User: Which sequence fits this backbone?
């Protein structure tokens, strides 16, 4: 039962990211890269506790994926959807 719940959450998450990518006109060849970024960011949001760690991990992920040629605009939209911890 836990596996089914986790799979349903992941499927919903993927659909939300896919919607953003389709709205931005991203070719399907690049979808896996954006999905990977979104999943890594989501994992860091769930696993890390301290704000300083969240900020540092976000900077590392953004730098890594921007150097791979992903659009900053699309990454910003993914950030807006995924990031749940906001610094005061």
Assistant:
């Amino acid at each position: 039962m836990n596996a089914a719940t986790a799979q349903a959450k992941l499927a919903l998450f993927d659909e939300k990211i896919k919607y953003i990518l389709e709205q931005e006109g991203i070719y399907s060849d690049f979808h896996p890269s954006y999905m990977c970024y979104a999943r890594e960011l989501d994992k860091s949001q769930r696993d890390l506790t301290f704000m300083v760690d969240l900020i540092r991990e976000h900077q590392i992920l953004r730098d890594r994926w921007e150097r791979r040629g992903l659009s900053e605009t699309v990454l910003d939209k993914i950030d807006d959807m995924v990031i749940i911890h906001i610094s005061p």
In short: The chain has one domain: 2-82. The mean pLDDT is 93. The radius of gyration is 13 Å.
